[in-house]
Specification:
Glutamine Phosphoribosylpyrophosphate, subunit 1, domain 1; Rossmann fold; 3 domains; about 35% helix; about 25% strand; globular; binds fructose -6-phosphate
């Protein structure tokens, strides 16, 4: 989950390194550091905390040089301390390494090196790597072969970049199960743990594959297989990545900005895809596999977190509109399940970042199986986008706040489009198309409720717990609403299907345990009302999200939020935005760091 950068060229390395780390801060923001080589001497700047602190630190003790590496950390091994901050070096400070991933056999390696007289200063798994390189370098005097030998010993997952005082002409990179992109500029080369930091400098990018080492310099790159040491030819590809509008404008933080971008997100996900007048859905990304899709009789959706909840909405949509049996699985479970799959099953991965380790591993498991791999991905050029046979981009633009909001809305919109595309004789096709077209305006109406929602959220923010309930399409939104409030406000929250209340959760309810009930108009009205009566009878406070202020459910609630009416399959596009505003303002009331909540990172690139 850490971010990695590297630079070799004619300019000050620190400029790219610091900017690149800022771009990558969504991957982790516990601590950050850079190491820069100048005339055989490597200088470092490191700090606990954000990249902005690192900038200050570097400004006070500047590092100069045109070759360097950098890292922003999400702690796995060892606390958030300066001694655990990357880049890590060997005992004689000749080799510096930045690492993303986990070295599973680091204890074994540490024991071996300790016996050879090596000492360690950090609690990290990474520190064994520069020492192992040093160990091999003593024998060969060659940085590449020392790096190769070291990397061959490692088990686990890694993206590594090595800087050595013995070689000012090259940087060395290696990859196994953790992405690494090389951006080729004119007389300079940029490294990133994804293409985002590179994107602002060059569009010519090459991605390393598992089991490869790259030697990079001002003239370009050479890729070799870690085991066979044979050279691998790979041309650059042109990547068009919007590195994101870093400007907050009038918004206080990215989460608020991104919630307010949801109407535009829906428009952008539909743009050129939904020809409302002709009742046609055109999804270019699926055209290649259109014939194969005819034979698909089951879809398994795999994803994590918010994308998983979007997948749950997708399940209802695909079943109702396209009539295809669907199952949603968490990627972390799917990857280890012994599930027999037939060739008529397609697996559809959903991911904002396209770099989530569990989702990548889940797709890897399917390699060589002949199973059709589809994707709904937001980040163009990401690992998952490249691993799938076909897919549909979300076009939501970069999402910077750790808590996902606009990506969920985009994913659900894309699910609606895919469901319509795969629909055979769905009788309400035009009704859905018509309703979808006005969703952006309706989300704008929800956003206008922000002040009212904020007032309610502030009242409830000081509770320790929250229950979120909903039925059918509102059930995944209840789960997502609960996830959002817990991740940004740290209020304990659980999402349940309304029908499950009597099977356990009802025991929690008393005057101090409020419920956020999603009770929008549909043929489940009476059932939702019964759930609320049960809560009401136990003195539970209720905030109800309704689309009719006179509905019975509204009458039982302490507080109501009234959003516009739409057809049930599209309700998650409106109700999710209301839950986002609620969570946002509860977190704001509690003074939380909204864009960078504690213990989390935007992109979960380790298991
Ligand atoms: C929650 C959140 C996470 C992600 C999850 C999957 O707000 O952001 O739960 O949804 O880590 O990430 P992606 O979609 O990038 O695969």
């Amino acid at each position: 989950m850490c971010g990695i950068v590297g630079y070799i060229g004619k300019n000050e390395a620190k400029d790219y390194l610091l900017d690149g780390l800022e771009t990558l801060e969504y991957r982790g923001y516990d601590s950050a550091g850079i190491a820069v080589l100048n005339k055989e001497k490597i200088s470092t700047a490191k700090t606990v905390g954000r990249v902005e602190h690192l900038r200050k630190e570097e400004a006070e003790r500047p590092v100069h040089g045109s070759v360097g590496i950098g890292h922003t950390r999400w702690a796995t091994h060892g606390g958030v301390l300066e001694r655990n901050t990357h880049p890590h070096h060997d005992k004689s400070k000749e080799f510096y390494v930045v690492h993303n991933g986990i070295i599973e056999n680091y204890e074994e390696i540490k024991e071996f090196l300790s016996k050879q007289g090596y000492e360690f200063y950090s609690d990290t798994d990474t520190e064994v790597v520069p020492n192992l390189v040093h160990f091999h370098y003593q024998k060969t005097g060659n940085v590449l072969s020392a790096f190769q030998a070291a990397v061959q010993t490692l088990r686990g997952a890694y993206a590594l970049v090595l800087l050595s005082s013995h070689d000012s002409e090259n940087l060395y990179a290696a990859k196994l199960s953790s992405p690494l992109a090389l951006g080729v500029g004119k007389d300079e080369l940029f490294i990133g743990s994804d293409a985002l930091p590179v994107a602002g400098h060059t569009q010519d990018v090459v991605f390393l594959e598992d089991g490869e080492i790259a030697v990079v310099n001002t003239e370009g790159y050479r890729i070799v297989d870690i085991t066979t040491k044979k050279s691998i030819e790979r041309a650059t590809e042109v990547i068009e990545i919007d590195s994101g509008d870093g400007d907050l404008g009038d918004f206080p933080d990215f989460m608020s900005k991104e919630i307010h971008e949801t109407p535009a997100t829906v428009r952008s996900a539909m743009l050129g895809r939904l020809r409302a007048d002709e009742q046609i859905v055109k999804l270019g990304g699926l055209e290649l596999v259109e014939d194969q899709l005819q034979f698909i009789d089951r879809i398994i959706i795999i994803a994590c977190g918010t994308s998983y909840y979007a997948g749950m909405v997708g399940e209802y949509l695909l079943e109702e509109i396209a009539g295809i049996p669907v199952e949603v699985q968490q990627a972390s479970e799917f990857r280890y399940r012994q599930e027999p799959l037939s060739r008529s099953t397609a697996v559809l991965v959903v991911s904002q970042s396209g770099e989530t380790a569990d989702s990548i591993a889940a797709l890897k498991k399917l390699e060589g199986s002949g199973i059709l791999k589809l994707g709904i991905v937001n980040a163009p050029g990401s690992t998952l986008a490249r691993m799938t046979d076909a897919g549909v981009y979300c076009h939501a633009g970069p999402e910077k706040a750790v808590a996902s909001t606009k990506a969920f809305v985009a994913q659900v919109t894309v699910f609606v489009l895919i469901a319509l595309k795969l629909a055979k004789n769905y009788p309400k096709f035009s009704e859905v198309v018509k309703a979808l077209n006005v969703i952006p305006q309706q989300i704008e109406e929800v956003l206008k409720l922000e002040k009212d929602i904020a007032k309610i959220a502030k009242e409830y923010a000081h509770h320790n717990d929250f229950l979120y309930i909903g039925r059918r399409y509102a059930y995944p939104v209840a789960m997502e609403g609960a996830l959002k409030i817990k991740e940004i406000s740290y209020i304990h929250a659980e999402g349940f299907a309304g029908g499950e209340m009597k099977h356990g959760p009802l025991a929690l309810i008393d005057e101090s345990f409020p419920t956020f009930a999603i009770a929008l108009s549909n043929d489940m009205d009476e059932k939702s009302f019964s759930n609320m009566q049960e809560i009401h009878a136990r003195n539970g406070k209720i905030v109800t999200l309704v689309d009719d202020k006179n509905s019975p459910s509204a009458k039982l609630a302490q507080d109501i939020i009234v959003i516009p009416k739409t057809i049930e399959p599209l309700q998650p596009l409106l109700s999710s935005v209301a839950t986002y505003l609620f969570a946002y303002h509860a977190a704001k009331e509690l003074g939380r760091d909204i864009d960078k909540p504690r213990n989390l990172a935007k992109s979960v690139t380790v298991e």
